[in-house]
């Protein structure tokens, strides 16, 4: 079926724009809340903050490119756009923006996994059920496959411009299934990564000598990556629409929508656990630490609060048998550890 025969009338442009900027706005608020917490409340940002910030930038760029595509006709029926003056050129530019935006989408939902890994290693530390090497291996595998999918999208057509401009003479592309199958593998590994990064800390929390409500609270916070895994699977079902030839400007919208949701949800999922100290300050209406103010200890000495992502919480190896009274809340709220109560260091991996 040629695009000229596609149905006209109806538009998903408003839906696409709303999803893009509402979810991106949520991600912006969450990320800046995280950065504020680690920088001004805890006074010690970590590498996970950098990863989250870069992923947010990628998400903003991806949303901006999608908005530019919407302005050119993305979300309308292809035949309707093609019939407008300059419509064909707009279609070419829209497809080009989709291809150029793909790497930013990949970065937006891949880098948060690195941030979550950093956080888990600090919070969970040593576990007897899973090794740090396994967690790192899963995340690295996801990053490598995501990078491969970016390469595929740019080399699947020769010349590359043929991906968005089918009028180029002599252009040719691989079978669309190459990209589809590559994307399926990436989606499967990404969903598995999200699952692992959710299950590992949840199982480890139950080994700590802390109150049940604290276990549940932190398990829910870090378990938010499970939601991202669900969205990844849903998005994967629409991947073939990326190379749709029937009504490409209209049919691809559902894929773009789920891609936007996925990338922003995983960013929020990676940011929310670190917001816990900020929530506690709000509940207690306590003073916030500013760049020029300090939290003072009982002996009136200056005290730096430590970020959750930087605490050596691997020392919180299950110490129930050793009679450890250290609570996760004390660590997570970054209260100073008193040397006389410090548990013995855990055996490192």
From TrEMBL:
Domain of life: Eukaryota
A Pfam family it matches: Fung_rhodopsin
Domain Rhodopsin as annotated: residue spans: 35-280
GO cellular component: membrane
UniProt KW keywords: Membrane, Transmembrane, Transmembrane helix
Family: Belongs to the SAT4 family.
Xref: PANTHER family: INTEGRAL MEMBRANE PROTEIN, PTH11-LIKE INTEGRAL MEMBRANE PROTEIN (AFU_ORTHOLOGUE AFUA_5G11245)
Protein name: Rhodopsin domain-containing protein
